[in-house]
Amino acid sequence: MYFINLFGKSWFLNFILYMKKLIFASKQSLKLKFMPYFKSCLPVIILVFFFAANLNLANAQTFNFDLQGHRGARGLMPENTIPSFLEALKLDVNTLELDVVISKDKKVVVSHEPWFNPSICLDASGNQITEESEKKIRIYEMDYAEILQFDCGSTQNPQFPKQQTQKVAKPLLEDVISTVEAYIKNNNLPKVAYNIEIKSAPKGDDTFHPTIDVFSKLVHKVIKKQLPTERVTIQSFDFRVLKYWNKHYPAFKLSALVSGGDIKNQIDKLGFTPQIYSPSFKYLDQNTVKQAQTMGMKVIPWTVNQKEEMIPLLEWGVDGIITDYPDIGMELKK
Ligand code: G3P
Ligand code: CA
């Protein structure tokens, strides 16, 4: 105000009026200059606008489905470890997918292989495991105290560049369940389901794992102690396992794991209709989804890691998706 008074009020007002005129004049000239171009470009502008709006709509598409964290959240944390399962919980999965094998002292160990995968595990001395020796170091021939010495988290899985590393051992199924349940309780999270894969094959009996009856009884004992039946699904590629559970523990949901192939033949071979049909997404088509659902099964394909792969499956009406990247899957959840 002191500055205005010094040079007189009229000077300041004139300056403001002059600036206003200048702005108005430049707006007019801009309009005159660009209006013809603007008019001719209008259809293109409208098209671009609708395209962008549609793209946005497509991106915002969401679905109701069972989001299953494969080996926890394998894309982000060392697979089948407690940090991986906790990461999956943070990403709002409905179900934790995991694999189990048996140790010499008959403990149920969470592991994809009944040995130590050389691309992700180091031996008890921190040395690399060679591909020649991997299948000779059998979990079924080691007590859990020995298994605990192996580090299956410090080496990043080369297939998953976003995977964090940390020194961590293969956990027991009972420790996974108790840690997950405590985490859920302490953080007021919704309860999750467990999709537990029994890793067996006919040629592995008594070498890589016990026979199906012994294997199943051990797994059943752990589950019964810690979880209600309705929160568990037993899955296997080994149909002997599904047949065993169907006969001896019929209250459990069962999931038939397959790669591809004819669904009717597969279910005929199994001899009963399980609750879930779980094929590789790579061989799945819309007809098979409908066929499985008409037969009374839910369809939960594995292992779907890209949004562009998930969307068509969800549009076909699959009931769930098993993914290494629950962070991607959660973006598609309603
Ligand atoms: O749950 C299905 C999926 O886990 C089967 O494949 O080899 O990753 O156990 P895999
Ligand atoms: Ca599995």
- Please tell me the total number of domains: 2
* pLDDT averaged over residues: 90
Number of strands: 9
Specify the CATH architecture of the largest domain.
Alpha-Beta Barrel
User: What is the class of the largest domain in the CATH system?
Assistant: Alpha Beta
Low-confidence stretches at least 5 residues in length (pLDDT < 50)?
1-15
Assigned CATH superfamily of the largest domain: Phosphatidylinositol (PI) phosphodiesterase
Helix content: 40-55%
Write the element-wise H/E pattern from the N-terminal end onward: HHEHEEHHEHEHEHEHEHEH
What's the alpha carbon Rg, rounded to whole Å?
Answer: 29 Å
Q: Which kinds of small molecule does this entry bind, naming each only once?
A: SN-glycerol-3-phosphate, calcium ion
State the end-to-end CA separation. Answer: 58 Å
**Biggest beta-sheet profile:** 9 strands, mixed
Q: Helical element count?
A: 11
